[in-house]
Design a protein that fits this description.
288 residues; alpha/beta
Length: 288
Amino acid sequence: MSKIKVDAFFDNDTNTVTYIVIDVASQHCAIIDPVLDYHANSGRTTTDSADKIVSHIDKFGYKVEWILETHAHADHLTAAPYLKAQLGGNIGIGEHIIRVQNTFKELFNLSDEFVPDGNQFDHLFSDDEKIRVGHLDMRVIHTPGHTPACVSYLIEDVAFVGDTLFMPDYGTARADFPNGSAKRLYHSIQKLLSLPDATRIFVGHDYLPTGRSEYMWQTSVLEQKRQNIHVHEGIGLEDFVAMREKRDAGLDVPKLLLPAIQINIRGGQLPSPEANGQRYLKIPLNLM
């Protein structure tokens, strides 16, 4: 019998998968990459997706120890603070988030109210750091490339890889965000593919590529080695970088990047109210 259980929740609006990983013996758990619903036409946030997580955890009586981010997402807003208020737990992200915060503080010309030192999170993880989920160790693996702050989480024979790898028939993540790097992404992927072949990989998104009719989010190291269309065995660094950079050059800016990144570098907290009591996001014109 497996020591861990993984429950997945797919958000159709952003193609994001949120995970609850549970230590079966203790019923303690971690939540990975939760989604706060954002309605771009009105600027409103709602908690329907997060409330499904709350209901599920309440139903089974799980105890939340961690709310984990694989990186500062560009495709959805995080619900981490809302879930912490409802369920407890500490919010964690990789320590290189500070670099991302500094980059986007400058890009958005944020005021001194925003301090880019990682204080918005409860804990900043270093590479190879171990944390506890119930009785089990979870290892943090720095996997930069998509962003400089990306991390993956390995617990027992399960790896949560965020946007580093997708399902084999979709390939790999883009690497053209500020301070992203196709070269670093390749090396991060090789780090993940050096795990045992039977390691189960849970990806952060699925975009339903042509030829497949159902969303999927679980694969394995062996399947990635054999079948990933971008980085299977035999694909070297130079070929991968050339493919990734050419592909990225034709991609549109993610539709929620501008609101999402402003919230996510704050650990999910909304900007402070202005003099009229209203909160605002900034939209830079003709920049992206």
